[in-house]
Protein: Glycosyl transferase
Organism: Sphingobacterium siyangense
Amino acid sequence: MFKISAIILTHNEEIHLERCLKSLQQIEAKAFIVDSFSNDRTKEIAESYGAYFIQNTWVNYATQFNWALENCPIDTDWVLRLDADEYLCENGIKAINSDLPKLPENVSAATLVLKRVFMGREIKRMPKIKMIRLFRYGRGRSENRWMDEHIQIDFGSIIDLNGTFADDNLNNIGWWTTKHNSYSVREAIDLLDMEFQILGNSHDNNLDEQARKKREMKMRYVKSPLFIRSFTYFIYRYIFKLGFLDGKEGFLWHFLQGWWYRTLVDAKVFEIKKFCGNDTEKMKEYISNNYGIRL
């Protein structure tokens, strides 16, 4: 009898999936692989571990995750959200196995602590991030955003399990930069939505405390000057938060993720504003025509 249903969204994840599924075996979780038509060994690996495999056309993370909640035959009380390039750490496995069964019915969700790994090295000089990754089935879903999606809980309390999961992508730098170039468009949409409400989203409903604080910090970031904010963020992380102590891998992480990527996002925000001004309908049309994303 499975205790937890784990939803994993995939596209060509043969390099990561086995590691992820092995960690799930240690918490007696049933894996539901929702795939966006991979052409590698993703399906073969998933089925070799007894995972439920289903495919659906990709729109964005939130849409795909919520589709999984509605279409997978989930029959457990708890759902775990995990990406293919993530895995549960030993203390996370221990916390789930020992503490989760003891939670009272009024607890609807639990957070786990994120551990960042880049090029094989743990990036330690980052703020401690707790994320809702476990929730009772029927009480939560992903908020409808293009980036920075959090799990929203309909009712009940949220507790910290104090276990850890790792984000540890094994692909090379070329893959990483290409991926983040595609992310930058979605991030630009998210920032424009926070500034102009082009999608009409609410940005703080039913979020846990840390997610709400993170969203408030992001709103302050939105109101800061373009390009200066990305440079300032890099200096804050690399100098004031002692990121330079994480070695060459740490420099690459903070430079690429903290400055290069966010400057690229600002370039796309600048581009869209230059051609559209503050006209939200023009923004939608421009994004659709130039980036192939319909909003």
